[in-house]
C-alpha cells in the first residue's frame, strides 16, 4: 500500500511539473495585465507540434544525431518559436485592447485559443500524431520504486526552470519591472519602464516555459491532437487559481496539487473519467472558501 | 397619446399573430423545404440563447461563459421527461410544460452556481461558470443511466417551427419588458458601477442572482427545444465550444441590445451554414470573427441600440 502510494507520488510529481510549467504562464500574464490568457493552453498545444516538427526533422536527416542532441535542439527550437507565437498574439490581439474593458480581452483570449485549435486542425487534419521516443526507455529501480529517465528529467527540468524564473523575478531589473507593473501600471511608465517591452517579454517567457512543458508532456503522452490544449490548459489554469493567480510560487504549488488530483482520482474513484469533475469541484470549493487561492493576497476595490 | 399607445398594442399583436400563422403555414403547407425549415429552427433556438445570455453579459455587464451547461441541463431534463415518464401520445400536448420544467431545472442549477460566485470578485464569475460547464459535461459523461458519453436518444420530434417562433417571441417579450422595467435599470446600473448602484439602493446581490437564473431558465428552454429537434443529444454538444458560439452571437449582434441578439444569432447561424463547403476551415471563421470584433467593434453591430418599435412608449417620449 505504501509502495503504491510512493509510486503514485512520483507520477504525480512528473505530471504536476508539466501543469506547474503551464500554470506559470497563466499566472505571469495575470500578474502583469490582470488578464486571463485563455489561449495559453492552446499555445502549449502548438508548442508540442513545434517540438514534434523539430524532432521528426532531425530524426529524418540522413546522418545520425545523438538522441540527447535531438532532444535539446527540439526543446530550444520549440521554446523559441513558441515565445515568438506568444509575443505575436499579444501584439496583434491583446495590445489593441489594453484600454478596453477587461471582458473584451478575456473574450479575445478565448477566441484566439479556439482559432489556434481550429487552425491547427484544418492545417494538419484531425488524425492524432505520434510523438517519437527521444529518451531511452529503460527504468531504474530505486528502493523498490520505478523511476524512468523521462520522469527524472521532467522533474529536474521543471525545478530548474522554476528556480531560474523565481530568481529572475526577484533579483533582476526585468523582474523588478514586472513586479512594478503588476503593482501599479499607470505610474510605472513615468519611472521610465518600457511597459510594452516588459509585457512582450513576459509573454515570451510564459510561452517558452509552456513549450518546455509541452515537450515533456509530448514525451510522456505521445499522442498529439489539436484539442489536447483544452484539457491541459484548463487544468493548468485551475492550478494557477488554486495556488493564487498572479503568484508564481502559488502556480508551482497548484501544479503539483493538480498533478496529484489527476493521478490519485483513479486510485480512489471507480474511473479516471471523474478527474474533470474532481478538479473543477476543487476549484469551486476553493473559490467559495478562499477566493484568492492558497497563496494569493486579497484585493480590495477602492471607491 | 392613449390612442397612439392602443394602436401600437394592436399592431404588435397583429404582427405576432401573423408571424405565428405564417410559420405554421410554411411548415404545414410545405412551402419551404425541410432543410430550410431546419435552419430556421436553429436560428430560433440560437436567438433564445443569445437573448438570454445578453441579459447577463450585455445588460448586466457580468461575464458568464458556461451557458451551454444550463442548456445541457434543460435538454437532458426535458428529454428524460418525454422519454421515460410521459406516454408518447401525450408528448405534443404537454411539450410546453416539459420545456418549462427543463428551464426551471436549469434555473435551479443557476441558483446553486450564483449563490457562491457573486460573492467573489469580477473575473471569478467567468471561472465559476466555466467550471460549471465542465462539471455538467463531466457528470453527464459519467452517468451511464443517460447514456454516458454515447448520449441520450429516442426523443420524439416535438419541436417544430411554430413552437420555436412562439418561444422566441415569448423570450423577446419577456426580456424586453424586463429590460425596460425597474429591474432592467437595476442591472444596467450594476454594469455601469456596482458600488454606486449599491449606494443608490439597488439590491445588487439579489438582482444579479435573479438575472442569472432567468437567463439560465431560457437557456434551459432552448436546450429542451434543441433536444426534441435533434432527437439525440450527447455531452459533447454542450461543451465549452457551444458556450463560445453563444458569446460570438452576443458580441456579433450587439451587447445590451434585443434586436442585436436576434441579428447576431441569425447572422452567425446562416454564415456557418453558408461556409459548409469550406470543410474544416469553416470552424476557423467563428473565432477569427470574435477576435476581430473585439478589436474593431467591441459593442457589436447594434450594441446599446434598439429600434423604436422595441422600446416602450415612455422611453421614446422621454427621448
TrEMBL record, chain A:
InterPro entries: ABC_transp_permease (IPR001851), BCAA_transport_permease (IPR052157). One of its GO terms (biological process) is L-alanine transport. Its main location: membrane. It comes from Desulfobacca acetoxidans. GO terms for molecular function: L-isoleucine transmembrane transporter activity; L-leucine transmembrane transporter activity; L-phenylalanine transmembrane transporter activity; L-valine transmembrane transporter activity. Belongs to the binding-protein-dependent transport system permease family. LivHM subfamily. This is Branched-chain amino acid ABC transporter permease. The keyword Cell inner membrane applies. Keywords: Amino-acid transport, Cell inner membrane, Cell membrane, Membrane, Transmembrane, Transmembrane helix, Transport. It comes from the Bacteria. GO terms for cellular component: plasma membrane. Pfam families: BPD_transp_2. The chain crosses the membrane at residues 12-36, 43-63, 69-93, 105-125, 145-169, 198-220, 226-245, 252-271, 277-296. The keyword Cell inner membrane applies. It is found in: Cell membrane. It is a multi-pass membrane protein.
